[in-house]
Amino acid sequence: MPNRIKYKIILASASKRRSKILKECGIPHRVVISDILEKMDHKRGARFNVLHNARAKAEKIADRYKEDFVIGADTIVLSGKRLIGKPKTKKEARLFLKAFSAKTILVYTGLCVIDAKRGRSASGIEVSKVRVKKLSRKKIDKFARIAGPHDKAGGFSIEGPGAFIFDNVEGSFYNILGLPVMKLNELFEKLGAGLL
Q1: pLDDT tens across 77-91, in order?
Q2: Among the options 35, 68, 74, 115, which is catalytic?
Q3: Looking at residues 154-178, what average pLDDT do you find?
Q4: What domains can you pick out in the chain, each with its CATH number?
Q5: Other CB atoms within 10 Å distance of the CB of residue 48
Q6: Is 74 a catalytic residue?
């Protein structure tokens, strides 16, 4: 299939999974990690945090690359009223899974696309629901051992071993992976670009 994309795209994210999704969709891009300190303001809620972080990532890189489109993305899990980002340790990843057991969690991803050349931007949020099966301590320990690394919001992936404990997905599957491509394309279209 011929590549019709005439502009350069930068992914301002350290997530290998996000880059992989773009590659699988045939979207050429390069990765430039923003290294911002991600915000987690528990009083402001998931929507504020994912949009703030996505915008901050994109803006930092767009300041350096004036001819490109820059994608910023951030994902947070909401379990009950608790906001959950990436676990700092394997122990914390296990605690997250224990908290998710037999519950439905919400996955929020904020996106910001900046057309650095024209100084325009578009932002949006995607929300998906995932039901987590009831997990024994033994299952949690086994999953935590085989499912790493835990560099994802909530410390889990629904790919691979995650298929055994996460089901009943409502909404965008790619959102749960960290990059809702339909929403991303909507933002590009708002900027007059489009990804297809």
Answers
A1: 999 999 988 888 788
A2: 74
A3: 82
A4: 9-190 (3.90.950.10)
A5: 15
A6: yes
